[in-house]
Amino acid sequence: MSEQPTIFSAADEMPAREEMVKLGASFFQRGYATGSAGNLSLLLADGTLLATPTGSCLGTLDPLRLSKVSLDGEWLSGDQPSKEVSFHRAIYLNNPQCKAVVHLHCLYLTALSCLQGLDTSNAIKPFTPYVVMRVGDVPVVPYYRPGDARLGEDLAKLAPHYRAFLLANHGPVVTGKTLREAAENTEELEETAKLIFTLGNRPIRYLTADEIAELRT
């Protein structure tokens, strides 16, 4: 793997690197990530991105080898970034509230992304309060080959209005004001997707419009 010199431009960068390593390991150890699937990123104080490198396993990240990338896509330091960092950049550039992005191929959300007939405006019709409170609606992005520029184009259009997205036949993309918040939002979505498959064809008591509105106020 190609490697650039490690350059730290801010005193608080090492804690951010260590947190990414810690959360990546937690995802891997608990089965949210397998092999080299998935990627994480966060916005640093200097306006650059810290991201997981291409082909890296979230369970064995090295804080000194994480990729550093400009919002224009220039690879600044560390190992070569994942090609999917392009759609991370699209979200940051179009939603100033977003400070971190988690993209996983976790079991239940990925299974949900493969179903036909999903409501593309919101893949998870609310039946518990927690998804509404943490992320709101979860729109579906059409299937594109991983790394396709159209993923970033579609996410750029959706980013100002949503905090989480489901890539068809691929998996979730979830944002947060911190990497930990993005991680916790991802876990809440995954548990909700698990409930969907657990409930199966049983009748579900969905939240009413008034109940949803109350949670959003």
What tags apply to this protein structure?
217 residues, alpha+beta, nine-stranded mixed β-sheet, 7 helices, globular, disordered N terminus
Distance, first to last CA:
48 Å
Q: What is the strand tally?
A: 9
The value of Rg in angstroms is 17 Å
Helix content: 25-40%
SSE order, one letter for each helix or strand: EHEEEEHEHHEHEEHH
Percent strand equals 15-25%
Major pleated sheet: 9 strands, mixed
Count, helices: 7
> Given the helix and strand composition, which structural class is it?
alpha+beta
Extract low-pLDDT stretches.
1-8
Q: On the 0-100 scale, what is the average pLDDT?
A: 94
Shape: globular
How do the strands line up in the largest sheet? 1-5-4-3-2-6-9-8-7
Task: Give the structure's gist in a few sentences.
The protein is globular and about 50 Å long. Residues 1-8 have low confidence and may be disordered.
What does this molecule look like?
The protein is α+β, with helices and mostly antiparallel strands and 217 residues long. It has helices at 13-29, 85-94, 107-113, 129-134, 149-158, 179-199, 209-216; strands spanning 3-4, 39-43, 49-51, 67-69, 75-79, 100-103, 140-141, 164-167, 171-176. Helix 2 packs parallel to helix 5 (149-158) and helix 3 crosses helix 6 (179-199). It is globular.
